[in-house]
Design goal:
Blueprint (H helix, E strand, L loop, with lengths): L1 H77 L5 E12 L5 E12 L3 E12 L5 E13 L2 E12 L7 E13 L3 E10 L3 E9 L2 E2 L4 E14 L9 E13 L5 E12 L14 E13 L1
């Protein structure tokens, strides 16, 4: 009987031990699962924080970069990012007091940005029963101030009147811009062979009568500082012309006009290659047409 009781107690203790072991195993497994889940949650949270931090840094970087790009684009647009071009052709026929006519042509074209441009300018003059003479200038233009460009280049001259030195090349420097009261201004100095030094000045301004009719007073002058060439001009104010053009703008590309001016020419010096000439002055009148592109 006692043995039976001991056996029963042993069986009960074994059962309790097995049940307790299973419970502990289940608790241990559950705790391990909770620990793994907690670790996974921490890793996920850290990964999310890292992603948010990277996105924040990228956003800050983009905010820093995009304004810089916008600033650069605005600077290029304002200071040389766009290329422009303009061409004007003017032809006119002028008569003097004796009724002698002279054809004058002027071509000006430029291409470039607000800061840097290339100018090409040509003048041609041919009087009746006389050979023509013309000049062509190529200039680099650099903006140095509001409404003002500094220019430098060369001028080629061809004069059929001369038996020698028909073709000459001069260094040319000057400024182009708007002087006070909005007069468009071109002022240049020229240096050529045989110690030739000269200045030129052109001023003009538009005054609107109506939207189609425009008056344009103008002044053109040349001053010879020194000239030791074979066909030397007299020093001082060599030539000048003051006039008034009145044009009608058919459109912005075609503009016929009439022109009345007073012209002065000092004449040439006496050299071994030419005789001295007297000064000449008088009224000039005529008309012409201007094309702009």
């Amino acid at each position: 009987m006692r043995i039976t009781n001991l056996f029963s107690l042993s069986v009960m203790a074994s059962s309790l031990f097995v049940f307790s072991g299973q419970a502990n195993a289940e608790n241990t497994h559950e705790m391990m699962s909770m620990h793994e889940e907690h670790q996974h949650h921490l890793q996920t949270q850290q990964s999310s924080d890292t992603s948010q931090e990277n996105e924040s840094e990228q956003s800050i970087h983009n905010q820093d970069v995009h304004p810089q790009h916008a600033h650069d684009a605005a600077h290029m647009k304002e200071h040389g990012g766009q290329v422009y071009q303009s061409t004007s052709i003017e032809n006119k026929w002028m008569l003097d007091d004796d009724g002698k006519g002279t054809l004058k042509s002027k071509v000006k074209t430029w291409i470039g940005t607000d800061e840097n441009k290339l100018f090409l300018t040509a003048h041609l003059e041919k009087a009746e029963s006389s050979a023509e003479h013309y000049d062509i200038s190529a200039l680099y233009s650099r903006n140095i101030a509001e409404f003002w460009d500094l220019q430098a280049g060369a001028r080629y001259r061809h004069d059929q009147h001369r038996r020698e030195d028909k073709q000459q090349v001069d260094a040319q420097f000057g400024v182009h811009g708007l002087s006070p009261y909005f007069f468009e201004t071109e002022a240049y100095v020229y240096f050529g062979k045989d110690d030739q030094v000269a200045l030129s000045l052109e001023l003009e301004r538009d005054f609107l009568i109506t939207q189609k009719w425009i008056m344009q007073p103008y002044v053109e002058a040349e001053i010879v500082i020194n000239d030791d060439s074979k066909y030397a001009k007299k020093t001082g104010l060599s030539s000048a012309e003051m006039g008034l053009k009145t044009r009608y703008e058919i459109n912005k590309n075609v503009m016929p006009f009439i022109d009345i001016a007073y012209a002065y020419d000092k004449g040439n010096q006496a050299t071994a290659w030419q005789s001295a000439t007297k000064s000449d002055s008088g009224l000039r009148y005529g008309g012409g047409i201007t094309f702009k592109f």
